[in-house]
Amino acid sequence: MGSKFDIAQACRIGARISNQDRIGHSESDAAVLMVVADGMGGHPRGDVAAQIAVDQLVEDFEREARPRLKRPDAFLVDGFSRAHRRIGRDARAMGVRGDPRTVLVACVVQDAAVTWLHVGDSRFYLLRRGRVVTRSRDDSFIQQLIDAGWLNEEDAGLHPDRNIVVKCVGGNESLRLRRPERVALEPNDVVLLCSDGFWGPLASGELAEGLRGRDLDAEVDALVELAERRTGVQCDNVSVLALAWKERRRRARAARSRKPVDDLPTES
Question: Is the CB of residue 206 less than 8 Å from the CB of residue 235?
Fold first, then answer.
């Protein structure tokens, strides 16, 4: 499937003393999985939670994508649920005290469409011809203020509570997930997964203009360096996975995007 897309990645420590972000991707002959996890500060060993989450999804994909997944949406829901349970189990086996947690975003590219799911404030973007077609809505306190009309997007980056997330993978709370969303891909679309250390310092327009898929490695590097310069000594871990879709659209009926629906309870 590699001839149908280009992929680029970056995972940098920024100005922090450790990197709690983890990224991963895997490819079969008919599908691609992409994952970004950002271990949560304020809880022990966020890096452990992030690595376990990425490992779980990659292992599931390599077992089930033969060469395609039967249902990418069900795959993502099941994988997030298994990661939620495994984080606590593996952390205890490793002697980690407390409850490691992570935010998580993942997508599957298959049949000229992308299906995605997220928990927390690591984001999914679909970029097309210099604009943002859609992006994930953060599970964060700030997003709740924006949705309620008490804060606008422009001021969100300066709010003192901008780092508070209201959902995560791992921990003792039950995991509640939205339904995954799916949208058809067009030639030169760019699928972007990233942690808040990347999207936080950059405007949506900068992301869309900067990631055109012409030279994806160079474009990712340039935006990562811009994010690092803007935040300086406050720079968070910066993680990015981007895929530029190259295949021409077939005449078969294109997949339709699906609007988010109410949260679905999943096994905790």
Answer: no
Answer CATH for 2-251 from 3.30.70.360, 3.30.300.130, 3.60.40.10, 3.40.50.12280: 3.60.40.10
- Residue 184 CA to residue 111 CA, distance in Å, equals 9
pLDDT band at 166 (very low <50, low <70, confident <90, very high): confident
The span from the CA of 200 to the CA of 202, in Å, is 6
**Residues with Cβ within 8 Å of residue 123, at least 6 apart in sequence:** 105, 135, 136, 138, 192, 193, 194, 196, 199
Tens of pLDDT along 76-133?
A: 999 999 999 999 888 888 888 778 999 999 999 999 999 999 999 999 999 999 999 9
Q: Integer distance in angstroms from the first to the last C-alpha of the chain?
A: 35
